[in-house]
Amino acid sequence: MNALCAYIVLVLLALGAAGAPPQETEVEGLILKLGAAEIAEREAASRALMERGEAVRPALDRAALNPNMEIAARARKILATLDRQVDALRPVLDKIRKESGDSYQRLIRDSTHAVAAIFEGKDLRRMTQSLERQGFTLERLNDDSDGAEYRITTKPAVFTSAAGIRHDLILDLTTKFKCSKTEPTQEIVGRAGTALRTRQEIAISEALAKPYPAKTALALAFAHKETRKSESEFPIVEEIELNYQQFGSHRDKTMDWGFNIVIRCRNRERSAGYLASYFFASGLDAHQEIGKAENPPGFEPRNTLELSYASGSGSWTSSRGTRTRRLQRNDHKDRPFWYEVYRNAPTARGGGDLKSLPADLTALTVKGTEYASQDGQLLLRFKNLRSLSWNIAPSILVEVASWTELKNLEALEVSNSDIDDDLLRGLSGATQINDLTLRHCDKVTDDGVAHLTKIEGLKRLVLWDGTLLTDRALEHFAKLKDLQSLQLTHWGRITDVGLEHLTRLTRLESVSIDRDVALTAKGLGRLGKLQSLKDISCTFSSLDDSGLEALGRIATLEILCLFDLKNVTDKGLRHLKGLKELRLLYVDQCPGITTEGLKELQDALPGKFELK
């Protein structure tokens, strides 16, 4: 019977071949060979079809229905392999969306298993071009020494609830870096999954009045007491996220598959919020080993849900003092964050990357441990380099000399635990730099800071953790006549005398002072002598309302940022009403400053301001 069916297919193909393009005729011929008598011929045809990839999917879909069981089985096997390739991401998700119908649970479950098969265990960097061809944008959320997290919005508004809540289908990827002294870094996907997410704001009452489909995870979550009990104080839903994953203790050998849900709510004033989270174990997959997605033989999927976990907690510090608020003039535009140039730069994580990255890079981040002692000289390949972030301990790789030879280098960030006076002495030869950031400076002394005065063109200087530095360090900085921005983070020995030294910097526009420095309102008032000063950030516990009074007399002030100040209140805010140039007041973790106090200031300032 199979031979007869194959003969019929052959006749039909022959009849249609005259009008078919040569390429289609060739593909149909390869499909016919999937049922050939010789194993070698069948295997060769399978490989040829695999090489053609997504272009032959329609023909394979038809072949999967072929009455010849051998052809149909091999076609289905090739389709299954194609489904595990990144080029198939969009068609696979389209197929799952169609097959899941109105069931968002089936959509998220099936798409999670599909993307895991496509991505997990593979090098993400080899798949990025395919994602771009399919119109996907890879958003990097986090990047540390071990790996990174990414997110892709694969299908906007893939599901809309009866209340009109539109949910996007999100793809989440977690990677691990595989670094080498000789080969380029690989970024291996360790976990891939999907989620439904919305940031469309809606009242809880409205979501309950027009609920999600009955007995589904989101319907049960909204009806649960952990969500309902916050409704009076936090009536607005601002974010919902649902994903399908395994849940349990890391000590467990097996875990349940199910739906993890986070519902984030807020009050009407946007000054505080509440978070409810749930996990519903699903009967769609078996209780199985961690990382396993293949159900055992004989398992029967059941569309059931069982609540395993429910929790509610305040997501912000208090309803009186919001974690973050901005009083912003309508014509204000934020300047690019100073760290963006490093955050977006290509990264070398081993000697193999320094050898293989394009030599015409203008920005580069260097980190990791996989380097040979001579690899530092490879920096000189990058003759156009303008920005360099260096996060390698000198015990692994010392290359201060190369920094001085990069003639186009303008911005340098050094971040390791071994910054000391000797490193600054070597760095002083890099006189081409105008932007310098030094982190972990707890071994640096006032004498070491003096070496930086040789970099006379410095316009921006950031020093973190200068626990040994005193007012003498600021006296040295006062010699940098071109300095426009100075950020001192985690210093502990600065007094009003040090601020007096800074008044000699006639071009200084921005000052940031952090942590427990011994400053008073009188010292802050001295900054008023700086006619160019526009931006001040304060994070030190001694600042109180008298300090705000001193800041309120700096007529040129455009941006004022207040962080983690326990002693400032609405009374102090009133001293800022005379700042006619103010464009932005940023308040973070200042419990004494209320929404009412900010609104009073908003009404008093010239121009139109928005409170966020």
Q: N- to C-terminal separation?
A: 74 Å
Would you count the extended β strands for me?
23
Radius of gyration, in Å, reads: 31 Å
Describe the largest sheet: 13 strands, mixed
- SS class: alpha/beta
**Runs with pLDDT <50, length 5+?**
1-20, 317-322
Report the CATH C-level class of the largest domain.
Answer: Alpha Beta
CATH superfamily of the largest domain: Ribonuclease Inhibitor
CATH topology of the largest domain: Leucine-rich repeat, LRR (right-handed beta-alpha superhelix)
Q: Which outline best applies?
A: globular
Average residue-wise pLDDT: 87
**Helix content range:** 25-40%
Number of domains: 3
Overview of the molecule:
The protein is of the alpha/beta class and 612 residues long. The protein folds into three domains: 2-83, no CATH class; 108-314, no CATH class; 324-341 and 386-611, Ribonuclease Inhibitor (Leucine-rich repeat, LRR (right-handed beta-alpha superhelix), Alpha-Beta Horseshoe). The strands form two sheets. It has a 13-stranded mixed β-sheet. Strands 1, 2, 3, 4, 5, 6, 7, 8, 9 and 10 form a ten-stranded antiparallel β-sheet that branches. Helix 1 packs antiparallel against helix 2 and helix 6 (89-100) packs antiparallel against helix 7. The radius of gyration is 31 Å and the shape is globular. Residues 1-20 and 317-322 have low confidence and may be disordered.
Secondary structure layout plus pairing:
Elements: H1 2-17, H2 22-33, H3 39-52, H4 57-63, H5 69-83, H6 89-100, H7 104-119, H8 128-133, E1 139-143, E2 147-160, E3 166-178, E4 186-198, E5 202-203, H9 204-209, H10 217-223, H11 225-228, E6 236-247, E7 254-266, E8 273-282, E9 288-289, E10 305-314, E11 324-329, H12 340-343, E12 347-350, H13 351-356, E13 363-370, E14 387-391, H14 400-405, E15 411-415, H15 421-427, E16 435-439, H16 446-449, E17 460-464, H17 471-477, E18 485-489, H18 496-502, E19 510-514, H19 521-526, E20 535-539, H20 545-551, E21 559-563, H21 570-573, E22 584-588, H22 595-604, E23 609-611
Parallel strand pairs: 12-13, 13-14, 14-15, 15-16, 16-17, 17-18, 18-19, 19-20, 20-21, 21-22
Antiparallel strand pairs: 1-2, 2-3, 3-4, 4-6, 5-6, 6-7, 7-8, 7-9, 8-10, 11-22, 11-23
Helix pairs in contact: 1-2, 2-3, 4-5, 6-7, 17-18
